[in-house]
Amino acid sequence: MTATIPTSTAELREVRGPLIGLPHLLKMRRDPIRHNDVVRARYGEVLKLNVFGTTLYACYGMDAAEQILINRDRVFANGPAWSHFIGPFFTRGLMLLDFDEHLHDRRIMQAAFTNDAMRRYHAVMVPHIRTGLARWADVKGPRMYELFKDLTLDLALETFVGVELDAAEKARINKAFIDAVRAGTSIIRANVPGTPWAKGLAARQVLEEFFYTHLPAKRRDGGDDLFAQLCTARSENGDEFSDADVVNQMIFLLMAAHDTTTITMSSMAYHLARFPEWQEKARTEALASGDDFDAITHLELQDRVMKESLRLCSPVPSLPRVATKETSVNGYRIPQGAFVTVSPYYNHHDPQYWPDPFTFDPDRFAEPRREDHSHRMAFHGFGGGVHKCIGMYFAGVQVRAIFHELLTTYRWSVPAGYEWPMDLVALPFPRDRLPVKLERI
Ligand code: HEM
Prior knowledge:
Elements: E1 16-20, H1 21-30, H2 32-43, E2 46-51, E3 54-59, H3 62-70, E4 76-77, H4 79-86, H5 99-110, H6 115-136, H7 144-161, H8 167-183, H9 196-221, H10 226-232, H11 243-274, H12 276-287, H13 293-296, H14 300-312, E5 319-323, E6 327-329, E7 332-334, E8 339-342, H15 344-347, H16 392-409, E9 410-413, E10 422-423, E11 429-430, E12 437-440
Parallel strand pairs: 1-2, 3-8
Antiparallel strand pairs: 2-3, 4-5, 5-8, 6-7, 9-12, 10-11
Helix pairs in contact: 1-2, 6-7, 6-16, 7-11, 8-9, 9-10, 9-11, 10-11, 11-12, 11-14, 11-16, 12-14, 12-16
Protoporphyrin IX containing FE (HEM) binds next to α11 and α16.
Protein backbone atom coordinates (compact mmCIF):
# COMPACT_ATOMS: atom_id res chain seq x y z
CA MET A 1 0.00 0.00 0.00
CA THR A 2 2.88 2.43 0.75
CA ALA A 3 3.82 4.33 -2.40
CA THR A 4 7.28 5.61 -3.36
CA ILE A 5 7.01 9.36 -3.01
CA PRO A 6 8.37 11.40 -5.93
CA THR A 7 10.75 14.19 -4.96
CA SER A 8 10.59 16.82 -7.71
CA THR A 9 7.49 18.89 -8.48
CA ALA A 10 7.51 17.70 -12.09
CA GLU A 11 7.10 14.14 -10.88
CA LEU A 12 4.03 14.86 -8.75
CA ARG A 13 1.03 12.68 -9.47
CA GLU A 14 -2.38 14.09 -10.20
CA VAL A 15 -5.04 13.11 -7.68
CA ARG A 16 -7.77 10.86 -9.09
CA GLY A 17 -11.47 11.38 -8.59
CA PRO A 18 -13.71 12.90 -7.57
CA LEU A 19 -15.84 10.09 -6.24
CA ILE A 20 -19.42 11.22 -5.93
CA GLY A 21 -20.54 11.84 -2.40
CA LEU A 22 -23.76 9.94 -1.77
CA PRO A 23 -22.70 6.39 -2.77
CA HIS A 24 -19.42 6.99 -0.95
CA LEU A 25 -21.20 8.20 2.19
CA LEU A 26 -23.52 5.17 2.12
CA LYS A 27 -20.56 2.79 1.92
CA MET A 28 -18.79 4.81 4.61
CA ARG A 29 -21.83 4.34 6.76
CA ARG A 30 -21.79 0.59 6.36
CA ASP A 31 -18.07 -0.18 6.73
CA PRO A 32 -15.78 2.87 6.70
CA ILE A 33 -12.44 1.13 7.12
CA ARG A 34 -13.03 -1.49 4.44
CA HIS A 35 -14.48 1.07 2.05
CA ASN A 36 -11.46 3.34 2.49
CA ASP A 37 -9.09 0.35 2.08
CA VAL A 38 -10.79 -0.45 -1.21
CA VAL A 39 -10.66 3.10 -2.62
CA ARG A 40 -7.10 3.62 -1.36
CA ALA A 41 -5.95 0.44 -3.13
CA ARG A 42 -7.81 1.44 -6.30
CA TYR A 43 -7.08 5.18 -6.53
CA GLY A 44 -3.91 5.81 -4.51
CA GLU A 45 -2.73 7.54 -1.36
CA VAL A 46 -4.70 10.73 -2.03
CA LEU A 47 -8.19 10.71 -3.45
CA LYS A 48 -10.76 13.37 -4.36
CA LEU A 49 -14.27 13.08 -2.95
CA ASN A 50 -17.33 15.23 -3.49
CA VAL A 51 -19.00 15.42 -0.08
CA PHE A 52 -20.59 18.04 2.19
CA GLY A 53 -20.84 20.57 -0.62
CA THR A 54 -17.16 20.59 -1.49
CA THR A 55 -14.32 18.52 -2.94
CA LEU A 56 -12.13 16.91 -0.29
CA TYR A 57 -8.67 15.47 -0.86
CA ALA A 58 -8.63 12.46 1.47
CA CYS A 59 -4.98 11.88 2.43
CA TYR A 60 -4.28 8.39 3.74
CA GLY A 61 -1.59 7.15 6.12
CA MET A 62 0.64 8.32 8.93
CA ASP A 63 3.16 10.20 6.75
CA ALA A 64 0.39 12.36 5.31
CA ALA A 65 -0.98 12.90 8.83
CA GLU A 66 2.44 14.06 10.00
CA GLN A 67 2.99 16.37 7.06
CA ILE A 68 -0.42 18.00 7.33
CA LEU A 69 -0.77 18.23 11.11
CA ILE A 70 2.82 19.23 11.90
CA ASN A 71 2.54 21.68 9.00
CA ARG A 72 6.21 22.71 8.97
CA ASP A 73 5.79 24.98 5.92
CA ARG A 74 2.68 26.63 7.38
CA VAL A 75 0.75 25.73 4.24
CA PHE A 76 -2.34 24.15 5.76
CA ALA A 77 -4.93 26.35 7.46
CA ASN A 78 -7.63 25.33 9.93
CA GLY A 79 -9.91 28.37 9.73
CA PRO A 80 -11.21 28.09 6.16
CA ALA A 81 -11.49 24.30 6.52
CA TRP A 82 -13.38 24.00 9.79
CA SER A 83 -15.42 27.12 9.00
CA HIS A 84 -16.94 25.32 6.04
CA PHE A 85 -18.44 22.74 8.42
CA ILE A 86 -19.01 24.54 11.70
CA GLY A 87 -17.94 28.14 11.06
CA PRO A 88 -21.12 30.14 11.61
CA PHE A 89 -21.92 28.16 14.74
CA PHE A 90 -18.48 28.07 16.35
CA THR A 91 -16.97 31.19 14.89
CA ARG A 92 -13.56 32.26 16.24
CA GLY A 93 -13.15 29.18 18.41
CA LEU A 94 -9.47 28.37 18.97
CA MET A 95 -9.49 25.51 16.47
CA LEU A 96 -10.74 27.87 13.74
CA LEU A 97 -7.92 30.37 14.12
CA ASP A 98 -4.60 30.20 12.30
CA PHE A 99 -0.94 31.04 12.58
CA ASP A 100 -0.02 34.11 14.71
CA GLU A 101 -3.58 34.83 15.80
CA HIS A 102 -4.04 31.20 16.84
CA LEU A 103 -0.78 31.18 18.79
CA HIS A 104 -1.73 34.41 20.54
CA ASP A 105 -5.09 33.03 21.70
CA ARG A 106 -3.73 29.58 22.50
CA ARG A 107 -1.16 31.15 24.84
CA ILE A 108 -3.92 32.91 26.74
CA MET A 109 -6.14 29.83 26.87
CA GLN A 110 -3.27 27.71 28.15
CA ALA A 111 -3.59 29.53 31.48
CA ALA A 112 -6.98 27.86 31.98
CA PHE A 113 -5.50 24.37 31.39
CA THR A 114 -2.65 24.23 33.90
CA ASN A 115 -2.23 21.35 36.34
CA ASP A 116 -3.54 23.54 39.18
CA ALA A 117 -6.61 24.42 37.14
CA MET A 118 -7.19 20.67 36.50
CA ARG A 119 -7.15 20.00 40.24
CA ARG A 120 -9.77 22.67 40.77
CA TYR A 121 -11.99 21.40 37.93
CA HIS A 122 -11.66 17.92 39.38
CA ALA A 123 -12.76 19.12 42.81
CA VAL A 124 -15.80 20.81 41.25
CA MET A 125 -16.80 17.78 39.17
CA VAL A 126 -16.47 14.95 41.74
CA PRO A 127 -19.68 15.58 43.74
CA HIS A 128 -21.67 15.98 40.51
CA ILE A 129 -20.26 12.72 39.17
CA ARG A 130 -21.35 10.94 42.36
CA THR A 131 -24.90 12.27 42.33
CA GLY A 132 -25.18 11.85 38.57
CA LEU A 133 -24.08 8.22 38.61
CA ALA A 134 -26.19 7.38 41.67
CA ARG A 135 -29.26 8.20 39.56
CA TRP A 136 -28.34 5.67 36.89
CA ALA A 137 -29.56 2.83 39.12
CA ASP A 138 -33.17 3.98 38.56
CA VAL A 139 -32.95 4.38 34.79
CA LYS A 140 -35.18 1.92 32.93
CA GLY A 141 -33.56 0.45 29.81
CA PRO A 142 -30.27 2.30 30.25
CA ARG A 143 -28.40 3.36 27.14
CA MET A 144 -24.83 4.25 27.95
CA TYR A 145 -24.37 6.78 25.16
CA GLU A 146 -27.38 8.78 26.38
CA LEU A 147 -26.34 8.52 30.02
CA PHE A 148 -22.85 9.78 29.24
CA LYS A 149 -24.18 12.56 27.04
CA ASP A 150 -26.47 13.84 29.81
CA LEU A 151 -23.80 13.48 32.48
CA THR A 152 -21.18 15.26 30.35
CA LEU A 153 -23.53 18.14 29.71
CA ASP A 154 -24.38 18.45 33.40
CA LEU A 155 -20.69 18.39 34.25
CA ALA A 156 -19.91 20.93 31.56
CA LEU A 157 -22.47 23.29 33.04
CA GLU A 158 -20.81 22.87 36.46
CA THR A 159 -17.11 22.75 35.59
CA PHE A 160 -17.20 24.97 32.50
CA VAL A 161 -19.98 27.43 33.14
CA GLY A 162 -20.40 27.29 36.92
CA VAL A 163 -23.94 28.66 36.83
CA GLU A 164 -26.91 27.02 38.58
CA LEU A 165 -29.64 26.39 36.00
CA ASP A 166 -33.12 25.01 36.41
CA ALA A 167 -34.20 21.97 34.36
CA ALA A 168 -35.91 24.05 31.65
CA GLU A 169 -32.87 26.27 31.12
CA LYS A 170 -30.57 23.25 31.05
CA ALA A 171 -32.78 21.65 28.40
CA ARG A 172 -32.76 24.88 26.36
CA ILE A 173 -28.95 25.12 26.41
CA ASN A 174 -28.60 21.40 25.73
CA LYS A 175 -30.86 21.72 22.69
CA ALA A 176 -28.90 24.72 21.46
CA PHE A 177 -25.68 22.70 21.57
CA ILE A 178 -27.18 19.76 19.79
CA ASP A 179 -28.60 22.03 17.09
CA ALA A 180 -25.30 23.89 16.69
CA VAL A 181 -23.28 20.68 16.39
CA ARG A 182 -25.75 19.00 14.00
CA ALA A 183 -25.93 22.01 11.73
CA GLY A 184 -22.50 21.25 10.25
CA THR A 185 -23.84 18.18 8.44
CA SER A 186 -26.81 20.01 6.89
CA ILE A 187 -27.19 19.27 3.18
CA ILE A 188 -28.69 22.72 2.56
CA ARG A 189 -25.98 25.10 3.71
CA ALA A 190 -27.97 28.34 3.93
CA ASN A 191 -30.42 29.96 6.34
CA VAL A 192 -33.48 28.16 4.91
CA PRO A 193 -36.21 27.83 7.60
CA GLY A 194 -36.57 24.33 9.06
CA THR A 195 -33.12 23.15 7.94
CA PRO A 196 -30.44 22.07 10.42
CA TRP A 197 -28.38 25.04 9.17
CA ALA A 198 -31.09 27.53 10.20
CA LYS A 199 -31.52 25.77 13.55
CA GLY A 200 -27.75 25.98 14.07
CA LEU A 201 -27.79 29.75 13.47
CA ALA A 202 -30.66 30.19 15.93
CA ALA A 203 -28.80 28.02 18.43
CA ARG A 204 -25.70 30.19 18.15
CA GLN A 205 -27.79 33.21 19.16
CA VAL A 206 -29.19 31.37 22.17
CA LEU A 207 -25.68 30.47 23.29
CA GLU A 208 -24.27 33.95 22.76
CA GLU A 209 -27.09 35.55 24.75
CA PHE A 210 -26.61 32.98 27.50
CA PHE A 211 -22.89 33.65 27.90
CA TYR A 212 -23.14 37.43 27.55
CA THR A 213 -25.82 37.41 30.28
CA HIS A 214 -23.60 35.58 32.74
CA LEU A 215 -20.29 37.21 31.77
CA PRO A 216 -20.38 40.35 33.99
CA ALA A 217 -20.95 38.27 37.13
CA LYS A 218 -18.11 35.93 36.14
CA ARG A 219 -15.71 38.81 35.59
CA ARG A 220 -16.74 40.26 38.94
CA ASP A 221 -16.90 37.15 41.15
CA GLY A 222 -14.38 34.76 39.54
CA GLY A 223 -14.53 31.07 40.46
CA ASP A 224 -13.00 27.68 39.81
CA ASP A 225 -14.92 27.02 36.60
CA LEU A 226 -13.50 27.32 33.10
CA PHE A 227 -15.65 30.35 32.26
CA ALA A 228 -14.17 32.27 35.22
CA GLN A 229 -10.67 31.06 34.34
CA LEU A 230 -11.01 32.36 30.78
CA CYS A 231 -12.12 35.74 32.14
CA THR A 232 -8.84 36.07 34.07
CA ALA A 233 -6.52 34.04 31.80
CA ARG A 234 -3.37 35.88 30.75
CA SER A 235 -0.52 34.84 28.50
CA GLU A 236 3.09 35.35 29.57
CA ASN A 237 2.99 38.64 27.65
CA GLY A 238 0.01 39.77 29.71
CA ASP A 239 -2.49 39.44 26.84
CA GLU A 240 -6.05 38.58 27.82
CA PHE A 241 -9.42 37.82 26.20
CA SER A 242 -12.05 40.46 25.42
CA ASP A 243 -15.69 39.74 26.32
CA ALA A 244 -16.35 38.61 22.75
CA ASP A 245 -13.30 36.30 22.88
CA VAL A 246 -14.51 34.71 26.12
CA VAL A 247 -17.98 34.11 24.67
CA ASN A 248 -16.62 32.70 21.39
CA GLN A 249 -14.14 30.43 23.15
CA MET A 250 -16.71 29.21 25.70
CA ILE A 251 -19.18 28.22 23.00
CA PHE A 252 -16.44 26.45 21.13
CA LEU A 253 -15.02 24.74 24.24
CA LEU A 254 -18.37 23.31 25.28
CA MET A 255 -18.79 21.83 21.84
CA ALA A 256 -15.17 20.60 21.67
CA ALA A 257 -15.49 18.84 25.03
CA HIS A 258 -19.02 17.50 24.98
CA ASP A 259 -19.40 14.99 22.14
CA THR A 260 -15.76 13.98 22.14
CA THR A 261 -15.83 12.96 25.82
CA THR A 262 -19.23 11.29 25.43
CA ILE A 263 -18.01 9.17 22.53
CA THR A 264 -14.75 8.29 24.29
CA MET A 265 -16.60 7.03 27.36
CA SER A 266 -19.16 5.19 25.24
CA SER A 267 -16.35 3.43 23.41
CA MET A 268 -14.73 2.51 26.73
CA ALA A 269 -18.03 1.24 28.13
CA TYR A 270 -18.73 -0.72 24.95
CA HIS A 271 -15.35 -2.46 24.90
CA LEU A 272 -15.38 -3.12 28.64
CA ALA A 273 -18.83 -4.68 28.24
CA ARG A 274 -17.78 -6.83 25.31
CA PHE A 275 -14.63 -7.93 27.07
CA PRO A 276 -15.66 -8.41 30.72
CA GLU A 277 -12.19 -9.65 31.67
CA TRP A 278 -10.91 -6.14 30.93
CA GLN A 279 -13.78 -4.63 32.90
CA GLU A 280 -12.75 -6.76 35.90
CA LYS A 281 -9.11 -5.76 35.57
CA ALA A 282 -10.08 -2.08 35.40
CA ARG A 283 -12.38 -2.55 38.41
CA THR A 284 -9.62 -4.22 40.44
CA GLU A 285 -7.35 -1.28 39.67
CA ALA A 286 -10.04 1.25 40.57
CA LEU A 287 -10.92 -0.50 43.85
CA ALA A 288 -7.25 -0.51 44.86
CA SER A 289 -6.89 3.19 44.14
CA GLY A 290 -8.11 6.30 45.91
CA ASP A 291 -10.36 8.75 44.11
CA ASP A 292 -8.48 11.98 44.75
CA PHE A 293 -6.84 13.86 41.89
CA ASP A 294 -3.38 12.29 42.31
CA ALA A 295 -4.80 8.77 42.58
CA ILE A 296 -7.00 8.95 39.50
CA THR A 297 -4.26 10.46 37.36
CA HIS A 298 -2.24 7.30 38.11
CA LEU A 299 -4.85 4.79 36.92
CA GLU A 300 -2.44 3.24 34.44
CA LEU A 301 -4.59 0.39 33.12
CA GLN A 302 -7.57 2.68 32.71
CA ASP A 303 -5.37 5.05 30.76
CA ARG A 304 -4.56 2.25 28.31
CA VAL A 305 -8.23 1.28 28.07
CA MET A 306 -9.06 4.90 27.23
CA LYS A 307 -6.36 5.13 24.57
CA GLU A 308 -7.34 1.82 22.98
CA SER A 309 -11.00 2.86 22.96
CA LEU A 310 -10.00 6.14 21.31
CA ARG A 311 -7.88 4.30 18.79
CA LEU A 312 -10.76 2.06 17.77
CA CYS A 313 -13.25 4.92 17.70
CA SER A 314 -11.73 8.37 17.23
CA PRO A 315 -14.32 10.95 18.29
CA VAL A 316 -13.07 13.42 15.67
CA PRO A 317 -12.83 10.97 12.79
CA SER A 318 -11.52 13.43 10.23
CA LEU A 319 -9.40 16.59 10.49
CA PRO A 320 -9.79 19.07 7.61
CA ARG A 321 -7.36 21.73 6.39
CA VAL A 322 -7.19 24.08 3.40
CA ALA A 323 -3.97 24.38 1.39
CA THR A 324 -3.12 28.09 1.30
CA LYS A 325 -0.80 27.53 -1.70
CA GLU A 326 -0.02 24.71 -4.09
CA THR A 327 1.78 21.89 -2.31
CA SER A 328 2.06 18.12 -2.31
CA VAL A 329 1.06 15.27 0.01
CA ASN A 330 2.25 11.69 -0.40
CA GLY A 331 3.69 12.71 -3.78
CA TYR A 332 0.39 14.02 -5.14
CA ARG A 333 -0.23 17.57 -6.31
CA ILE A 334 -2.53 19.53 -3.99
CA PRO A 335 -3.73 22.75 -5.62
CA GLN A 336 -4.05 26.05 -3.76
CA GLY A 337 -7.42 26.25 -2.01
CA ALA A 338 -7.92 22.46 -1.85
CA PHE A 339 -9.58 20.93 1.18
CA VAL A 340 -7.44 18.10 2.54
CA THR A 341 -8.45 15.67 5.28
CA VAL A 342 -6.56 13.43 7.67
CA SER A 343 -8.55 10.60 9.22
CA PRO A 344 -7.40 9.36 12.62
CA TYR A 345 -10.33 6.93 12.57
CA TYR A 346 -9.05 5.26 9.42
CA ASN A 347 -5.32 5.56 10.13
CA HIS A 348 -5.70 3.98 13.57
CA HIS A 349 -6.72 0.75 11.82
CA ASP A 350 -3.57 0.58 9.66
CA PRO A 351 -2.05 -2.88 10.28
CA GLN A 352 1.41 -1.56 9.41
CA TYR A 353 1.42 0.35 12.72
CA TRP A 354 -1.32 -1.39 14.69
CA PRO A 355 -1.08 -5.15 14.20
CA ASP A 356 -4.42 -6.94 14.30
CA PRO A 357 -6.06 -3.51 14.27
CA PHE A 358 -9.67 -4.53 14.94
CA THR A 359 -8.82 -6.32 18.19
CA PHE A 360 -9.39 -4.49 21.46
CA ASP A 361 -6.03 -4.85 23.20
CA PRO A 362 -5.02 -2.12 25.69
CA ASP A 363 -1.67 -3.86 26.16
CA ARG A 364 -0.54 -2.53 22.81
CA PHE A 365 0.03 0.77 24.65
CA ALA A 366 2.21 -0.89 27.33
CA GLU A 367 5.96 -1.53 27.33
CA PRO A 368 7.61 -3.19 25.51
CA ARG A 369 5.06 -3.08 22.68
CA ARG A 370 4.26 0.63 22.60
CA GLU A 371 2.57 0.43 19.21
CA ASP A 372 1.66 4.08 19.68
CA HIS A 373 5.38 4.80 19.16
CA SER A 374 5.52 2.93 15.84
CA HIS A 375 5.27 6.27 13.99
CA ARG A 376 5.33 9.86 15.22
CA MET A 377 1.67 10.11 14.22
CA ALA A 378 0.65 6.51 14.99
CA PHE A 379 -1.88 7.81 17.50
CA HIS A 380 -3.48 11.12 16.54
CA GLY A 381 -6.90 10.90 18.18
CA PHE A 382 -6.12 14.28 19.77
CA GLY A 383 -4.61 15.65 16.56
CA GLY A 384 -1.00 16.83 16.38
CA GLY A 385 1.12 19.94 15.87
CA VAL A 386 0.06 23.38 17.04
CA HIS A 387 -3.66 22.54 17.05
CA LYS A 388 -3.26 19.42 19.19
CA CYS A 389 -6.16 19.20 21.61
CA ILE A 390 -5.66 21.63 24.49
CA GLY A 391 -8.28 19.71 26.51
CA MET A 392 -6.52 16.34 26.31
CA TYR A 393 -5.60 16.28 30.01
CA PHE A 394 -8.92 17.74 31.01
CA ALA A 395 -10.63 14.90 29.14
CA GLY A 396 -8.33 12.38 30.84
CA VAL A 397 -9.17 13.72 34.29
CA GLN A 398 -12.90 13.77 33.66
CA VAL A 399 -13.02 10.33 32.07
CA ARG A 400 -10.95 8.79 34.85
CA ALA A 401 -13.01 10.41 37.59
CA ILE A 402 -16.20 9.09 35.97
CA PHE A 403 -14.86 5.61 35.29
CA HIS A 404 -13.40 5.31 38.78
CA GLU A 405 -16.87 5.93 40.18
CA LEU A 406 -18.61 3.80 37.54
CA LEU A 407 -16.34 0.77 37.97
CA THR A 408 -16.59 0.84 41.75
CA THR A 409 -20.38 1.20 41.86
CA TYR A 410 -21.73 -0.67 38.81
CA ARG A 411 -21.13 -3.67 36.58
CA TRP A 412 -22.51 -3.51 33.05
CA SER A 413 -22.83 -5.97 30.17
CA VAL A 414 -24.12 -6.46 26.62
CA PRO A 415 -25.52 -9.71 25.12
CA ALA A 416 -22.94 -12.15 23.72
CA GLY A 417 -22.10 -11.31 20.13
CA TYR A 418 -23.43 -7.74 20.35
CA GLU A 419 -21.68 -5.21 18.08
CA TRP A 420 -22.63 -1.58 18.23
CA PRO A 421 -24.06 -0.05 15.02
CA MET A 422 -21.71 2.88 14.50
CA ASP A 423 -22.84 5.91 12.50
CA LEU A 424 -19.92 7.82 11.03
CA VAL A 425 -21.51 10.42 8.83
CA ALA A 426 -20.59 13.27 11.20
CA LEU A 427 -19.11 12.51 14.63
CA PRO A 428 -19.31 8.80 15.44
CA PHE A 429 -22.22 7.62 17.55
CA PRO A 430 -23.98 4.27 18.12
CA ARG A 431 -27.34 4.34 16.36
CA ASP A 432 -28.89 2.25 19.18
CA ARG A 433 -27.28 4.51 21.88
CA LEU A 434 -25.56 1.45 23.41
CA PRO A 435 -28.20 -0.38 25.49
CA VAL A 436 -26.67 -2.27 28.44
CA LYS A 437 -27.65 -4.27 31.49
CA LEU A 438 -26.49 -2.15 34.42
CA GLU A 439 -26.27 -3.59 37.94
CA ARG A 440 -25.25 -2.03 41.23
CA ILE A 441 -22.27 -3.73 42.81
C1 HEM B 1 -11.45 12.56 24.51
C2 HEM B 1 -11.92 13.75 24.24
C3 HEM B 1 -11.37 14.64 23.15
C4 HEM B 1 -10.90 14.33 21.91
C5 HEM B 1 -10.78 12.96 21.29
C6 HEM B 1 -10.51 15.57 21.29
C7 HEM B 1 -9.97 15.66 20.01
C8 HEM B 1 -9.47 16.83 19.48
C9 HEM B 1 -8.80 16.91 18.20
C10 HEM B 1 -8.59 15.76 17.25
C11 HEM B 1 -8.43 18.19 18.03
C12 HEM B 1 -7.62 18.75 16.85
C13 HEM B 1 -8.50 19.28 15.74
C14 HEM B 1 -7.68 19.68 14.52
O1 HEM B 1 -6.47 19.53 14.49
O2 HEM B 1 -8.29 20.13 13.55
C15 HEM B 1 -8.87 18.94 19.18
C16 HEM B 1 -8.68 20.29 19.35
C17 HEM B 1 -9.17 20.99 20.42
N1 HEM B 1 -9.81 20.48 21.54
FE1 HEM B 1 -10.17 18.52 21.90
N2 HEM B 1 -10.75 16.60 22.15
C18 HEM B 1 -11.27 16.08 23.30
C19 HEM B 1 -11.63 16.76 24.43
C20 HEM B 1 -11.52 18.11 24.59
C21 HEM B 1 -11.89 18.82 25.79
C22 HEM B 1 -12.41 18.17 27.07
C23 HEM B 1 -11.66 20.14 25.53
C24 HEM B 1 -11.86 21.33 26.44
C25 HEM B 1 -12.01 21.28 27.71
C26 HEM B 1 -11.14 20.26 24.19
C27 HEM B 1 -10.78 21.43 23.57
C28 HEM B 1 -10.13 21.51 22.35
C29 HEM B 1 -9.69 22.75 21.76
C30 HEM B 1 -9.84 24.15 22.35
C31 HEM B 1 -9.09 22.42 20.55
C32 HEM B 1 -8.46 23.38 19.55
C33 HEM B 1 -6.98 23.49 19.83
C34 HEM B 1 -6.26 24.40 18.88
O3 HEM B 1 -6.71 24.56 17.74
O4 HEM B 1 -5.23 24.95 19.29
N3 HEM B 1 -11.07 19.00 23.65
N4 HEM B 1 -9.49 18.07 20.05
